[in-house]
Amino acid sequence: MKDKLLKYSTWLIPIIIVWISYANTFFSSQFSGVEIFSWQVMFIDAIKMLILWTIAYWAIKKVAQNGQKPGLGLYILLVLSLPFVHFMIYAVHKQYMIITIPLNDSIKLLHFIVNILEGLLLSFICVSFLYFLHYQERWGKAQVKTANLEKENSKAQLHALQTQVNPHFLFNNLNTLQGLIHEDNYQAQDFLIELSQLYRYLLNKADSEVVSLHDEIEVAQKFNFLIEQRYGAHYQCDIKIASEDLHRKYLPPFTLQILLENVVKHNRIDDDHQVKCVIETKGDWVEVRNNRHPKTSSYASNKIGLENLRQRYAILSNQEIKVEEKKGAFIVTVPLLTIETYA
Fold this sequence. Notes:
The chain has nine helices and seven strands. It is an alpha+beta fold. Helix 4 packs antiparallel against helix 8, helix 5 (185-204) runs antiparallel to helix 6 and helix 6 (213-231) runs parallel beside helix 7. The longest helix is centred in the middle third of the chain and has 75 residues, at 109-183.
C-alpha cells in the first residue's frame, strides 16, 4: 500500500496543487466581495504552488544527496522562508496589474500580512507532504535493503548446510564401493554407475533452495539401490507417494537421502536384524518410518543429518520437522513445501 502511494504520488501532486489553487482563489474572491471567479488569479496561484513545491523538493533532495538527513532545522527554514517567495510572486503580479489596470489598488500592509499568512499555510502543506514522501521512500529502501540482506544471509546459510551433505555422502558410499570391489566386480560396477548419477544430481542441485517431490523420490530410489547393494534383502524400503503431489510439492534438496542415511547409520542391519523403511505422503507432510534395531556399539555422530534438516527448514519456512519414537518404530515427518510457503 505504501509503495503504491509513493509510486502514484507524482500524479496526485498536480491535482492537489490545482484544487488548492482553486479553493484559495474561490475563498479569496468570496472574502473580497468579488463575485466573478478569476481564472487568471487561479493560474497565478497554481504557479505559486509549483514554485514553492519545486524549491522545497530541490532543497530536501540536495540535502539527501549530500548524505545528510533532512531534519527539523531544514523543515522550519523552508516553512518560514517560502512565504516570502510567495509574497514576491504576488508582488510582481500585483505590480503588473497596477500598470495594466490603472484603477487597481497599490500593495498595502494588509495585503502583505494576508499574503504572508497564505504563503505560510501553503509552505506548511508543501514541505510537510514532501517530508512525508521522503521518509516513506527512505523507509521503503531500508526495508528492501534489510530484506535483501536477510535473503543473502539465508542463501549463504543454506549453501553452507548443503555443502555439508555432499562430502559426507561420498565418504559413506566410497567405503561401500571399496567392500564391493573385493566381493563382486560386476556388482561394484553397477554400484559405481548409480553412485555417479546420484552424485551428479547432488552437484546440480547444490545451489537450489528446494526441489520437486518428484526429483526427491527419484533420488530416494537411486539411494535405496545403493543401500540394497550393501545390505541385500536385509534392507527394504517401500515408497507410497500421492501422484498429484509429485510436481506441486517441494522439499529441500537431499531431504529423503539424509533420512535414509539416518536409518542406516543408527540401526543394525544383518542376518538377524532386518530393517523395513516406508516413505509415505500424509497430506502436506512426508513421513519416513522404520523399525528400530539400535546399534549397541557407541557411535560418534558428526551431527550431519536431522540437525541439518532442522536448520534448513528454519530458514525456508516457519514449519518444523517432527521426530518421534513409538511401538518400536522411529518416525520422521517433514513438511511438504509449496511455492507460497517458502517464498
